[in-house]
Amino acid sequence: MNRFFVAETAVIDAPVERVWDVISRTDRYAEWVAGAIEVTDHHGLATVGRTYAERNRTLGPLKTDSIWTVQEIEPLKRRVDTGTGFAPLQDLTNTFEFRPVQSADGREATEMLYQVEYTIGLGPLGLLLDAIQQPAMRAGMRTSMANLNTLLRSEASRTAH
Amino acid sequence: MSSTQNQDTVTSHQARRADVVVIGAGLAGLTAARELVAAGRSVTVLEARARVGGRLLNHRLGDGQVTEIGGQFVGPTQDHILALAKEVGVATYRAAVPGENVYVRNGRARRFSGHLLPDPLALPEMGIALARIGQAAAKVDPAAPWRAPNARELDGMTYETWLRKAGITGAAVDLVNVFLNSAYGGEARDASALFSLWYVSTFGDETHPGTMERGTGTTGGAQDSRFVGGSQLVAQRLAEELDGRVQLNAPVRRVSQDSTGVTVVSDAGDWRAGRVIVAVPPLVASRIVWDPLLPAQQDQLFQRLPFGTLMKCVAVYDRPFWRAEGLSGMGLLRGGSPIREMFDNTPPDGGPGVLMGFLGGREWRKWAHRSAAERRGAVLRCFAQVVGERAFDTVDYVEQDWTAEQWTQGGPTAVAAPGVLTDFGQWMGRPHHRVHWAGAEFSPYWNGYMDGAVRSGQHTATELLHQI
């Protein structure tokens, strides 16, 4: 069984509290997670042991239904979920980690680590499959964090109520 | 009936009197009142709100500038509203802004000019869809859609079912829905096929058959022009002309008829009239207490003509920055975007900059209950896809949710589900003894539009004058 780790980092131009508020909302993933077309079931604020479900894009026009379980919450720092529904990817673990940083102009910002861990069976064929899918997965993770940055900016607009 | 007669006897002693009471100071009611006054009748207009205009509503931007957060566009063949506006001294200007439009699909934005979308896969299907809709709509009589060939069959299915049966699938259905999102505050799946084809047939006049192209078009179409000073100014000028005959803050609760006249009970007092014109949305009319009751078929019809779900979202900027970048501010957005259609709503002298987007139908249902900050963020992200990230730098942001308006109950117009037109449609404008009906939803042309409202107001006033 081949086990893979894919990690991307980005700096989100918002304080960690605001980032945490958004990523903790299981109903909001379709607003920033690339490939999440729709959240089909959710439990609101993420709670350990509870699940949420998504409709996701996979490769090209292919779509899948996924179910995620919240495994760990360390407020403002770390969140770990496990997911099913992405065959041939199995034992999927999604981790977000956050660290407060300062932007170049001195504003509060957040460094975000987005990591996905998974296995693919099928021996050498699994390695080949991963070589095909991993670049798209990495691009999706980078896009997600860029989307999160844009979402937070849009909600911090000058006329925010 | 005896208790009612007693009540009418009491109220009639205290009631103020007029030849005609008009209920509702939207365009239809005000137009009808104007015609009746011109014919020498005494008229009182009772308006529930503290303002006139109904679905026409200006938002003040400061320095005397306004932008509309209700109905705003007019175009060719809408001669009745255009003539009326001219008579009351409200000028028009071309709505289109020079520059390229933007088409967004699955998050990818592409600029385009003219009417041809930069989507080679969708274009052929959209061409077929327009042709088939045009052919089918041409067979529907705008004045009596229930007499159309296959009316019952068409009224037995949703518009989406009809489109798919006609071989029109994904992209074109989605593009039709982009239009219906603002036109219905809904989607093709919400409306009957007969209703939708009839709706298209009303996009014209007695000499120009309705076409989808005219209804959806900007320059040369229904979105061709706007009013200097905002569309509500037309209603305000009409109310000024009526010179004290409009009573605001007067929601009508009860309408009682007897052999000699009609008693109208409102929060501002009672009126006694020979005739009444009801010019409020059909569903709102069904919620008045009627004595005697409305004919059951008419009451059922009015209950089955709810308005759609629509919110106008307006972002204000210090200036229309997108124009300097060669953009018109007009955008069409597909693929689950909250805003699916947006326009540059900047006042005619060029500032401040205003972008307006429609949050309608399924997207309204998804976003209306969300927090204001989250919804505003989602709207601004749509605007940013069309004009860039400066869309986030607003100086003001306004939403007008028409479903939250007690005296409108949705927007922009009534949409009939399957079965309504063929089973109940003939009851639409049928007078109820001394009570007559007017409103944009009662017009055979530009149904649901300002022109339909003016036409209906004029028609009903004429009908009434022939009977008294």
TrEMBL record, chain A:
Source lineage: Bacteria, Bacillati, Actinomycetota, Actinomycetes, Kitasatosporales
Database matches in InterPro entries: Polyketide_cyclase/dehydratase, START-like_dom_sf
Highest taxon listed in the record's lineage: Bacteria
One Pfam short name: Polyketide_cyc2
Gene3D superfamilies referenced in this protein's UniProt entry, alphabetically: 3.30.530.20
The organism of origin for this protein: Streptomyces cyaneochromogenes
Protein name: SRPBCC family protein
